[in-house]
Design brief:
189 residues, alpha/beta, Nucleotidyltransferase, domain 5, five-stranded mixed β-sheet, 8 helices
């Protein structure tokens, strides 16, 4: 192993949606096997994210994904749930990171040295990789949820509070995975 620090990049997906889990991923890149095309997941097409997620899982030294459910989000709030998902993702890594870099302006309470980097998913390759894994996992969860509750259109808006989603909420009420602490859901209930 060279003298470079073992760094884990961490990011989340699904803080804003009205339904489903918040998902975090942690990734330790392999310097011997770089993944081309890493970027903030929001700047990539769904197809490109899917391809990159597969490459990331095959190339990196370690990766881990963790989710915190809608029910727990309602219990502890979205910020705490996000921090918990990030912590669980880091703890799920097969390799101990020497430093953890997190996208955003807050750090989860973990036993490793940790630094928050605003727009980190644009600046740090390991965070970009984590952002892609988290987004792809969350999208897959939304597609599964769509199969259970097709009336909401989760496959299209991925749980975000779009006009279509809010209309479906008014028409059908909330499904069990809706976040009851989020005001558009609360208003309907």
């Amino acid at each position: 192993m060279n003298s470079e620090l073992v760094i884990a990049g961490v990011d989340e997906a699904g803080r804003g949606p009205l339904v489903g889990s918040v998902v975090a991923a942690a990734v330790i890149l392999n310097p011997e096997k770089p993944v081309a095309g890493l970027a903030d997941s929001k700047k990539l097409t769904e197809k490109k994210r899917e391809l990159l997620a597969k490459q990331i899982k095959e190339s990196v030294l370690a990766w881990s994904i963790a989710s915190v459910s809608a029910a727990e989000i309602d219990e502890i709030n979205i910020l705490q749930a996000t921090m918990k998902a990030m912590k669980l993702a880091v703890e799920g890594l097969d390799i101990e990171p020497e430093k953890v870099l997190v996208d955003g302006n807050r750090c989860p309470d973990i036993r490793h040295p940790v630094e928050a980097i605003v727009k980190g998913d644009d600046k740090v390759q390991a965070i970009s990789a984590a952002s892609i894994l988290a987004k792809v996992e969350r999208d897959h969860q939304m597609i599964s949820l769509h199969q259970q509750y097709p009336e909401y259109g989760f496959d299209r808006h991925k749980g975000y509070g779009t006009k279509v989603h809010v209309e479906a909420l008014k028409q059908h009420g909330a499904c069990p995975q809706h976040r009851r602490s989020f005001s558009p859901v609360r208003k309907v209930l």
